[in-house]
Every structure is written in structure tokens, then in C-alpha cells.
């Protein structure tokens, strides 16, 4: 995707520096900054501190972290230590462990002298695969939007609602939930996107920044406005991303997704989830009981970052002094509330049978790495 007319991925390898470049997303949408990662500690901080965010992007970043570890010390012990350090950064998104397992599994059989080059090639492959996966998700999601558009009165846009940012900056490119939006817009379909603000980190602002840069009509709304819009026929389809999905189709995504699914069900609005296959956890069946939910710092709730009147980026406190704060970062939407899962291989029911039909090899082995 483009930023001010220049094509970017959310991360890329700089050959001259032999280092990974990332868009530091802490400053978006107010400032576009690029950061170079040079140490494993910087990779870990980038993931924990949300310089990079979004399940697919976290996985790709971790793969490059393993490549760095293999270059510095290709021994089994160092690779295991790097795996452990990166895996500990964030507990909910399964792409992180998927990428780390894939790297370690591929490198272990190699002699140490060959590991550094192989690890870097694999990191490049994981990044490129993510781009293609998301492009294909967009193709399949586009067909759903076309079907909705065909039933709309002439001159009326297809109105989509999304939560959090499952956009190109949450992946290597295209995004998951946004990929169908980009492809629908590029195909000439008239769409309008309701963008949830997504407290506490207001990641909807990232989605609005993306969509605006691409010329897609959108409105930024409070998290609590979605149900009202659905009641009044202003939402034709909800589409979100996911950080981990169980083998039975339960979907773990940014906090507040579950409430959108409930509102969608009550108002007969289709609720779809854009699902890259590396985000499926084939070892988990019950999302509510088995998926670990990350509890992030209370300061994310009590303080809000934004642009001040003088143009500087600042932080203000919005809660009373001394108030306790809870900050669960994700919730789980049970499969019964999900209309369908949009994957790179097609659209399926949110069920064990639906996922196994598209990914029989993974469903049988339980190991996509």
C-alpha cells in the first residue's frame, strides 16, 4: 500500500544495513516514522511495546528476529533462547508461536554454518506468503461484497463495519479485514466503512488513516455506536480480523469484537472474520476457556495519546486519580455468532467441519508449522 504516494510494506529488509526496517506504529496516524531493529532486545520491545502490532505482522517480525539470532550465534542453545524470548512478548496472537516454531523446525536439521542464510530466506518467505494470503482473502471477501451490492438499491453504497485495525499495517501488506475493502474499492464498487475507534488504544484511527490514504469513504465512530447503526439498517456486513481462531471456529480478536457479534446477530447482520490460516490454533477447541487473554498496562486506559493544538503529540489522563483500571486486550466470539470465515482458500462455516474442509492437512496433523 502507499503512504503519500510511496509504496510501503509494514516491514522490509534493508540489504545495505543488513537489518529490518519497520513502520513504528506508536506514532500513527499523526507521524510516519521508520525504525531499524538491530538487536534481539529491540525485536522483543518492538512486539511488546506495539511498535508492530497485528497477529500476522508480529509473526513476520519474530521470523526476522530468529534470523538475527541465527546470524549472531547459530547454536541450538541460542536459537532456543531467542525462541523463548520472542515467544514471551505477547501471549494471545498465535501467529507469533507459529512463525517461531516454523523457523526452529526448519533450522534444527541444518549444520550451524548454513543456518543464518536459511533463516533469513525463511523470514523473507514468511513475509511474502503473508502478502499473498491477504491478497487472496481479499478476493474471496470481494465476492461477498459483490453479492450484497447486487441487492442494494441503485446509488446506495455497501456499508461495512470493522473493529480495531486489521489493515495492511497489521500485516505485511493488504491487511485481512481491509483487503476485501481495498479490492472492492479498486473494482469500482461503492462502499462506506464504519470504523470503530477501538478503545483503549484507538486503533480505529489507524484504519481510518489507511482507508483515507486509499480514497475509501469512511466514518470514525465510537465503539458503542455500532449496535445503533445496525438497528437502523446502516450496516450491511461486519468484518473483523482475528488474533487466534480455534479449530472449532471460535474467534479471539480485539476487545469489543464479541459485543459487535452479539449486536449483529440481534439485527440479522452478517458477521464475517478474515482469517489467515497461520492464525488458526489447531490445538485449541474452546476459545473462551483455553485462549490466554493478554492483560495490558492500565495506563493504556487511563491515558490517551493524540495531537495537541500546537501539532505536537501528547498524552492526557482521562480517569480520576486513584481509580483502578482493567485492560483485557482481547475477547472471544463463539463460533455460533460468526456467519463465515474468509480464508485464503475460500469462505467456510465457523466450525470444525468448515475449517477441516479447507485445511484437511492441518486439521489432521494439528501442526501447520
Automatic annotation (TrEMBL):
SUPFAM superfamilies: NagB/RpiA/CoA transferase-like. The lineage of its organism: Bacteria, Pseudomonadati, Pseudomonadota, Alphaproteobacteria, Rhodobacterales. Pathway: Amino-acid biosynthesis; L-methionine biosynthesis via salvage pathway; L-methionine from S-methyl-5-thio-alpha-D-ribose 1-phosphate: step 1/6. Pfam families: IF-2B (PF01008). It catalyses: 5-(methylsulfanyl)-alpha-D-ribose 1-phosphate = 5-(methylsulfanyl)-D-ribulose 1-phosphate; 5-deoxy-alpha-D-ribose 1-phosphate = 5-deoxy-D-ribulose 1-phosphate. The active site is at residue 243. The record marks 164 as: Transition state stabilizer. This is Methylthioribose-1-phosphate isomerase. The gene is mtnA.
Amino acid at each position: 500500500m502507499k503512504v503519500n504516494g510511496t509504496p510501503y510494506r509494514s516491514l522490509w529488509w534493508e540489504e545495505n544495513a543488513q537489518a529490518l526496517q519497520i513502520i513504528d506504529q506508536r506514532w500513527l496516524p499523526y507521524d510516519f516514522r521508520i525504525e531499524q531493529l538491530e538487536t534481539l532486545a529491540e525485536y522483543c520491545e518492538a512486539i511488546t511495546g506495539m511498535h508492530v502490532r497485528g497477529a500476522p505482522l508480529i509473526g513476520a517480525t519474530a521470523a526476522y528476529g530468529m534470523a538475527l539470532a541465527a546470524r549472531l550465534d547459530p547454536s541450538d542453545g541460542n536459537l532456543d533462547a531467542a525462541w523463548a524470548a520472542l515467544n514471551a512478548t505477547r501471549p494471545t496472537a498465535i501467529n507469533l508461536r507459529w512463525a517461531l516454531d516454523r523457523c526452529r523446525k526448519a533450522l534444527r536439521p541444518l549444520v550451524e554454518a548454513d543456518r543464518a542464510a536459511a533463516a533469513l530466506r525463511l523470514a523473507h518467505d514468511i513475509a511474502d506468503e503473508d502478502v499473498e494470503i491477504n491478497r487472496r482473502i481479499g478476493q474471496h471477501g470481494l465476492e461477498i461484497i459483490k453479492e450484497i451490492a447486487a441487492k442494494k438499491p441503485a446509488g446506495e453504497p455497501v456499508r461495512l463495519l470493522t473493529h480495531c485495525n486489521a489493515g495492511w499495517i497489521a500485516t505485511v501488506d493488504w491487511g485481512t479485514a481491509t483487503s476485501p475493502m481495498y479490492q472492492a474499492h479498486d473494482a469500482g464498487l461503492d462502499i462506506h466503512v464504519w470504523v470503530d475507534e477501538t478503545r483503549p488504544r484507538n486503533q480505529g484511527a489507524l484504519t481510518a488513516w489507511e482507508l483515507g490514504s486509499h480514497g475509501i469513504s469512511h466514518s470514525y465512530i465510537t465503539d458503542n455506536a455500532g449496535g445503533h447503526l445496525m438497528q437502523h439498517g446502516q450496516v450491511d456486513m461486519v468484518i473483523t480480523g482475528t488474533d487466534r481462531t480455534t479449530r472449532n471456529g471460535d474467534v479471539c480478536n480485539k476487545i469489543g469484537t464479541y459485543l459487535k457479534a452479539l449486536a449483529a446477530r440481534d439485527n440479522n447482520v452478517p458477521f464475517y472474520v478474515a482469517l489467515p490460516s497461520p492464525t488458526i490454533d489447531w490445538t485449541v477447541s474452546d476459545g473462551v476457556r483455553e485462549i490466554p487473554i493478554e492483560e495490558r498496562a492500565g495506563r493504556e486506559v487511563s491515558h490517551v495519546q493524540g495531537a495537541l493544538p500546537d501539532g505536537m503529540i501528547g498524552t492526557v489522563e482521562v480517569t480520576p486519580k486513584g481509580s483502578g483500571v482493567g485492560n483485557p486486550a482481547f475477547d472471544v466470539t463463539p463460533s455460533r455468532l460468526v456467519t463465515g470465515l474468509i480464508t485464503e482458500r475460500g469462505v467456510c462455516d465457523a466450525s470444525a467441519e468448515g475449517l477441516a474442509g479447507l485445511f484437511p492437512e492441518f486439521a489432521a496433523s494439528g501442526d501447520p508449522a
